[in-house]
Amino acid sequence: MKTKFLITILLTALVCSGKIQAQGQVSAVKHESSIDVRINGNFFTTYIFSDTEKYPFFYPVNGPSGASVTSMRNSPYPHHSSLFFGCDEVNGGNYWQEGLERGQIISLRAEIKENNGQQVVIENECIWTRKGASAPVKDLRRITISAPSEGIYQIDFDITLQMLQDVEIRKTNHSLFSARMDPALAVINGGTMINAEGQTTEDGTWGKASPWMDYYGQRGDQTEGLAIMQHPSNIWYPSKWFTRDYGFFSPTPMYWPENGESREFEKGENIKLHYRVLVHSGDHESADIADRFEDYQSENKQ
Fold this sequence. Notes:
This protein has three helices and 19 strands. It is mostly beta strands. The chain has a single domain (23-297), classed as Beta-galactosidase, Chain A, domain 5 (Distorted Sandwich), CATH 2.70.98. The strands form three sheets. Strands 1, 2, 3, 4, 5, 6, 12, 16 and 17 form a nine-stranded antiparallel sheet that branches. The termini are far apart. Mean pLDDT is 93; it is low at 1-20.
């Protein structure tokens, strides 16, 4: 009894001191073309995979305040849909900008694989299709959503790109995993964009290779934002970033191919990419983004 009492006292002290933080309860419900995710009973995000959309994406992506840290199709450049994965210049197709006839990433299958309270795991299989052309790519996405500590919501986005034919991706800034922030959090409205090296704003971060980047700002009396991390197992790690002070940021390897023109992949080749998104309260220091990246990079990714 005395030992149990001492353990209880120790754990209570650790919780109060912030050394141990309670993990949030996560749950999901699937609808016809979307999956809603809640954290501690509060709505967090919807993963949308409707065949009327250009590609699957997350929207909204609510921060701890309850407001979305991302935006949908704001000017300028309204082809950004919140938090998403896509690519332009793929064998002549465009799987990024407006116009479904130019190319579209269609969900073939979307399932909730785990829904156990600690995390939600979504598996989504997609085909890249364009009228009058053979599909160049199929992808398999494994999305794991959790709330590892108070004020931190986490999305792990693991994707395997399967080349269904020889694929050429011409040099393009419209490529791969990306986020469009809510205007209230943008640099042009007083927000902060900062990378792992401490460089800030579009002038300081554009075209710079960095393992992670955080974007946050203040709404009312609260500061919150969204960080994107690249796992070291990614083949282009660390990718250079395409950044904009109006609220867009993306690790974009297709804009800096080694030959200056394109990247090429053979039929049957599989490209595996891993990203972690942290939606957080506070700035990059109070959210411990650098330390959380250290934890992420130590994880084994297959």
